[in-house]
């Protein structure tokens, strides 16, 4: 009985923790989009959608490998860090210029290290280079190279667990931004239809007045006027149907909440992570099957925002960075004192 009691107690505590997490995420969402608070039963309606989002984020988090050490020493031993940076001297540069790391170490004076997300642009290029075929060296072999650039460090935490929590929240924020974009597009379309309807009605009124004033004098010409009036009336009817599909303005809040729930219920349609695996030599040249030169098989994680205009694709890795390796750039005042 004691074992059952302890199991039930643990389960209750876990459920309470999940419930608190749901509440915090719901509040985060309505904090970014305050108008949702005015919708009917907003919290209870958002909760199922948030549960689907968090389940998806948990699956993503489980697939992310442990944080790697980012240092000049690791460049020589970790094939991933070696692939990310051209030389060991390049490793610390993005961390040293990171405002997020600067703020973290300032706020945590006793912290010896920080966990962070290293984000990079990745490019696959086809080039001609030097290579070995059998016992013959060629200088014009077609090769594929993998290049990393634009290294950025903007999200960090005091532990790996804290970092993963922050990553989840940032993705939730991104989904809310996607929802806000859809809401704005819906509102813009409604405004556009309202303006179009007003213009059509004005044009119709002018034509009807014109036809009424000269109908007995125009004879056969009036028929073309009637045709244009009929066309305008048909356009107005089409316009009314499009407006009806968007809903009344009095229903805008309900519609906005439905749009946001729709985004949160399908998070993988707006953000996903894919894995690319390459066999790379020490120069980041892809080693094809059958080639015998030394290479390491490296798996990269790439985050994608399909709804963005350029379908943004970035490579990322969670890393550990030591305070001992942190050398932030001097402030303008410090540089002035140094010069003096």
Plain-language structure description:
- It is built from 10 helices and 6 strands, in the order H-H-E-H-H-H-H-E-E-H-H-H-E-E-E-H.
- The protein has 340 residues and is of the alpha+beta class.
- It folds into 2 domains: 14-185 and 252-327, no CATH class; 186-251.
- Strands 1, 2, 3, 4, 5 and 6 form a 6-stranded mixed beta sheet that branches.
- Helix 1 (2-32) crosses helix 2, helix 2 crosses helix 7 (160-218) and helix 7 crosses helix 9.
- The longest helix is centred in the middle third of the chain and has 59 residues, at 160-218.
- Mean pLDDT is 82; it is low at 212-222 and 332-340.
Q: Termini separation (Å)?
A: 76 Å
What gross morphology would you assign? extended
Binned, the helix content reads: 40-55%
The rounded Rg comes to 30 Å
Strand residue percentage = 15-25%
What is the β-strand count? 6
In quaternary terms, these chains amount to single chain
**Class computed from helices, strands and strand pairing:** alpha+beta
Strand and helix order: HHEHHHHEEHHHEEEH
Q: Helical element count?
A: 10
Point out poorly predicted stretches: 212-222, 332-340
> How is the main sheet built?
6 strands, mixed
Q: What's the number of structural domains?
A: 2
């Amino acid at each position: 009985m004691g074992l059952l009691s302890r199991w039930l107690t643990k389960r209750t505590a876990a459920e309470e923790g999940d419930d608190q997490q749901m509440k915090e995420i719901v509040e985060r969402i309505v904090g970014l989009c305050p108008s949702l608070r005015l919708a009917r039963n907003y919290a209870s309606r958002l909760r199922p959608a948030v549960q689907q989002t968090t389940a998806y984020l948990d699956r993503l988090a489980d697939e992310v490998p442990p944080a790697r050490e980012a240092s000049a020493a690791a460049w020589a031993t970790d094939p991933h860090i070696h692939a990310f940076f051209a030389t060991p001297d390049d490793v610390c540069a993005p961390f040293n210029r990171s405002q997020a790391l600067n703020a973290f170490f300032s706020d945590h004076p006793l912290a010896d290290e920080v966990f962070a997300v290293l984000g990079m642009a990745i490019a696959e290029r086809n080039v001609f280079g030097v290579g070995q075929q059998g016992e013959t060296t060629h200088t014009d072999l077609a090769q594929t190279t993998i290049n990393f650039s634009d290294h950025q460090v903007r999200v960090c935490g005091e532990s790996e667990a804290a970092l993963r929590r922050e990553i989840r929240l940032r993705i939730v924020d991104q989904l809310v931004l996607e929802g806000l974009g859809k809401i704005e597009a819906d509102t813009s379309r409604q405004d556009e239809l309202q303006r179009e309807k007003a213009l059509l009605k004005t044009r119709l009124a002018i034509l009807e007045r014109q036809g009424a004033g000269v109908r007995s004098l125009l004879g056969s010409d009036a028929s073309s006027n009637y045709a244009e009036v009929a066309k305008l009336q048909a356009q107005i009817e089409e316009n009314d149907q499009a407006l009806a599909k968007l809903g009344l303005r009095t229903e805008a809040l309900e519609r906005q909440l439905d749009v946001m729930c729709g985004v949160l219920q399908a998070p993988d349609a707006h953000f996903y992570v894919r894995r690319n695996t390459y066999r790379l030599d020490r120069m980041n040249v892809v080693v094809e099957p059958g080639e015998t030169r030394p290479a390491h098989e490296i798996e990269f994680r790439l985050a994608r925002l399909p709804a963005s205009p350029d379908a943004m694709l970035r490579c990322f890795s969670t890393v550990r960075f030591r305070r001992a390796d942190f050398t932030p750039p001097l402030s303008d005042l410090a540089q002035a004192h140094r010069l003096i």
